[in-house]
Design brief:
Structural class: alpha/beta
Organism: Pseudooctadecabacter jejudonensis
Shape: globular
Helix content: 25-40%
InterPro entries: Ald_DH/histidinol_DH (IPR016161), Ald_DH_C (IPR016163), Ald_DH_CS_CYS (IPR016160), Ald_DH_CS_GLU (IPR029510), Ald_DH_N (IPR016162), Aldehyde_DH_dom (IPR015590), BADH (IPR011264)
Radius of gyration: 23 Å
Number of helices: 16
CATH topology of the largest domain: Aldehyde Dehydrogenase, Chain A, domain 1
Family: Belongs to the aldehyde dehydrogenase family.
Number of strands: 22
Keywords: Metal-binding, NAD, Oxidation, Oxidoreductase, Potassium
CATH architecture of the largest domain: 3-Layer(aba) Sandwich
Low-confidence stretches: none
Mean pLDDT: 97
Number of domains: 2
CATH class of the largest domain: Alpha Beta
Enzyme class: oxidoreductase
Distance between the termini: 77 Å
Bound molecules: NADPH dihydro-nicotinamide-adenine-dinucleotide phosphate
Length: about 475
């Protein structure tokens, strides 16, 4: 029997698909055909209750398993995802509009990497022993309990796994709410985890808008919330979590600098700027959208960038030769077009792009602005679309100060062949995720996350374990108790 890729219902709770058509309908629109490809229903209070109750019930037994046993489930899920990568990538492409060329290598595979990595780590999670004379302290690394994950729409499969894998490895249960814009792929992550042996209730998915996220994180059974989203949403979710003193991870927006010195390899620098602005049609949180180019190579940089943009191939994202897809929906297209108009109005020089393509789908041309100054709206606000701004600079001290002159602090990159300067620059960047002579790689082995308004906590790497567990400290006395009276 052929593998059925379309999720069977709106929610996945307690090991099974669950439907409740009493919830608000959410139409899933294909960004290419602009037609409805699926319909899910927002979680009703009854669905939210089922999901939280089943997670709470399942978590204790899951945490009592050995880490190796839990890890085996995650690694099995990784293998299943890899086996079905093609089908899962097609689903992701239909949901987000991202080219299959990208989703085949960056979405389900990245989820599999996270499940494999944290599956491997699960058996190695330990506490410590601290000798204090004859007495000693030992620490137990304990799960937090029920964790809520809330996702953005740009990397739906990846986000569902980047949150789920470390949470489950540490012995937590998760209730995940995808973005209403891209609700399909997280359901497949849940289904596959269950197939791989995750007990019912350990990873539940419920659909809905912000209100559903809010209902989840105000429930007293919830110990932690991990959000991937914008800064305004982050503020609300963080404040709500604070009322219950809940643990948080906040993966929020950015306006990251990419600094290109005149001694850089020009071809690599242009490649980095393309990766950091046009991959996923620019809908990537860590994008280096403020491209600072040293004056001496500005013209050569812009010329080579314009040349390489000739190789953009737009079209049906399911065609594997297509390398540039539409924006996720009409609303995002509107937002990005608004920023382009603002850039022109404020005096930036439009080098190329800027227009919506005359075809079905939310296609917007890759857009490059030059002569952008630090105070322009396009240099200050997160655009979340294919808009690259080139800003000129003279020297290292000046550019570092300007690079850091933002409230965001997600990522930063530098291209130079001067080793000392490269390390000075990254030491000075006020950003959580930095790059030297490359941009936007996010392997599971490396911590990922932001400083300043871009977030709190880190995803991926051993670091994520600290955000999904807490240490219990146990003092053991080997001697008589000395009391003052
Ligand atoms: P939003 O902030 O609009 O939404 C993020 C998620 O939060 C959605 O699932 C949304 O639900 C939900 N939500 C909204 N309001 C609330 C609330 N009050 N309580 C609980 N949940 C709520 O972000 P987008 O989906 O538009 O994603 C784009 C943003 O995500 C960009 O700013 C981007 O930079 C950021 N991002 C950050 C990443 C990182 O790792 N740092 C990675 C990827 C994206 P719904 O939308 O369904 O109503």
């Amino acid at each position: 029997m052929a593998y059925e890729i379309q999720p069977k219902a709106s929610h996945f709770i307690d090991g099974a698909y669950v439907e409740d058509t009493a919830g608000t309908p959410i139409r899933v629109i294909c960004p290419v055909s602009e037609e409805e490809i699926a319909r899910v229903y927002a979680a009703t209070p009854a669905i939210i209750e089922q999901a939280l109750a089943s997670a709470k019930r399942a978590q204790v037994a899951w945490a009592a398993m050995t880490g190796t046993e839990r890890g085996r489930v995650l690694r099995r899920a990784a293998d299943i995802i890899r086996d079905r990568n093609y089908d899962l990538s097609v689903l992701e492409t239909n949901d987000t509009g991202k080219p299959l060329q990208e989703t085949l290598v960056a979405d389900a595979t990245s989820a599999a990497d996270a499940l494999e990595y944290f599956g491997g780590l699960a058996g190695a999670l330990t506490g410590e022993h601290v000798q204090l004379g004859e007495d000693f302290v030992y620490t137990r690394r304990e799960a937090l309990g029920v964790c809520v994950g809330i996702g953005a729409w740009n990397y739906p499969t990846q986000i569902a796994a980047w949150k789920g894998a470390p949470a489950l490895a540490c012995g937590n249960a998760m209730v995940f709410k995808p973005s209403e814009t891209t609700p399909l792929c997280a359901l497949k992550v849940a289904e596959i985890l269950h197939e791989a042996g995750a007990p019912a209730g350990i990873y539940n998915v419920v659909q809905g808008m912000g209100e559903v996220g809010h209902a989840l994180i105000t429930d007293p059974r919830v110990a932690k919330v991990s959000l991937t989203g914008s800064v305004p949403t982050g503020r609300k979710v963080y404040a709500t979590a604070a009322e219950g003193i809940r643990h948080v991870t906040m993966e929020l927006g950015g306006k990251s600098p990419l600094v290109i010195f005149d001694d850089a390899d020009l071809e690599d620098a242009v490649g980095g700027a393309i990766l950091g602005n046009f991959y996923s049609s620019g809908q990537v949180c860590s994008n280096g959208t403020r491209v600072f180019v040293q004056k001496g190579i500005k013209d050569a940089f812009l010329k080579r960038l314009a040349d390489r943009l000739q190789d953009v191939k737009m079209g049906d994202p399911l065609d594997e030769s297509v390398n540039f897809g539409p924006l996720v929906n009409a609303k995002q297209l509107d937002i990005v077009q608004g920023f382009i108009a603002k850039g022109i109005e404020e005096g930036a020089r439009l080098v190329c792009g800027g227009e919506r393509e005359k075809r079905a789908g939310y296609f917007l041309q890759p857009t490059v602005f030059a002569d952008v100054s630090d105070d322009m709206t396009i240099a200050r606000d997160e655009i979340f679309g294919p808009v690259l701004s080139v800003l000129d600079f003279e020297d290292e001290v000046e550019v570092l100060a300007r690079a850091n002159n933002t409230d965001f602090g997600l990522a930063a990159g530098v291209f130079t062949n001067d080793l000392g300067r490269a390390h000075r620059m990254v030491a000075g960047f006020e950003a959580g995720t930095c790059y030297i002579n490359t941009y936007n790689l996010a392997p599971v082995e490396a911590p990922f996350g932001g400083s300043k308004l871009s977030g709190v906590g880190r995803e991926n790497s051993k670091n994520a374990v600290d955000h999904y567990s807490e240490m219990k400290s146990v003092y053991v006395s080997m001697t008589a108790v000395e009391a003052p009276f």
